[in-house]
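Q: I'm building a small set of examples for a reading group on sequence design. Run inverse folding on the following structure and report the sequence directly after it, with nothing in between.
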């Protein structure tokens, strides 16, 4: 014997009600997933785009934390070709900048240097920057390349790690 046509409609309505109860939670999960992800960039222009995007998403007064480049030659090239061009954007947004550097790259600060610097005598992780919910990890060897990670939780873990090392670093 077949079910009454009206009972099928009642079943559909009850399932619709269950779905509508779950809808806000599903939308929140979708929003969170769309806000997280990873992007890959290659070349000096690509890394400059990565850094610009990271800074563009930052809010006024955010703290930019960076583990600087370990290799002095790569540091100078990156400073000239990428960082000098994004520095004015960071200044305009009043982004607080903190960097942990290797003793190998210690140099006399320039007149317009805004970055608070500290130094460590041991090797640092690859050039890593944390700003807001973003983490950039860049390799400057041969052709530069980098990844931009969008994740509030991972950014917090990196920021906490940076802050712990900041406390034991030397001026």
């Amino acid at each position: 014997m077949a079910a009454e046509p009206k009972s099928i409609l009642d079943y559909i309505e009850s399932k619709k009600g269950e779905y509508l109860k779950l809808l806000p939670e599903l939308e929140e999960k979708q929003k969170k997933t769309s806000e997280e992800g990873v992007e890959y960039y290659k070349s000096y222009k690509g890394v400059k785009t990565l850094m610009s995007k990271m800074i563009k998403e930052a809010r006024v007064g955010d703290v930019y934390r960076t583990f600087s480049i370990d290799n002095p030659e790569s540091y100078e090239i990156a400073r000239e070709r990428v960082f000098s061009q994004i520095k004015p954007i960071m200044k305009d947004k009043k982004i607080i900048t903190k960097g942990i550097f290797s003793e190998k790259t210690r140099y006399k600060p320039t007149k317009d240097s805004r970055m608070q610097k500290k130094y460590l005598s041991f090797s640092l992780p690859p050039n890593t920057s944390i700003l807001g919910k973003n983490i950039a990890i860049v390799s400057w060897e041969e052709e530069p390349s980098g990844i931009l990670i969008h994740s509030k939780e991972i950014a917090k873990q990196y920021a906490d790690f940076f802050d712990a090392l900041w406390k034991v670093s030397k001026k």
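The two ends are 84 Å apart (CA to CA).
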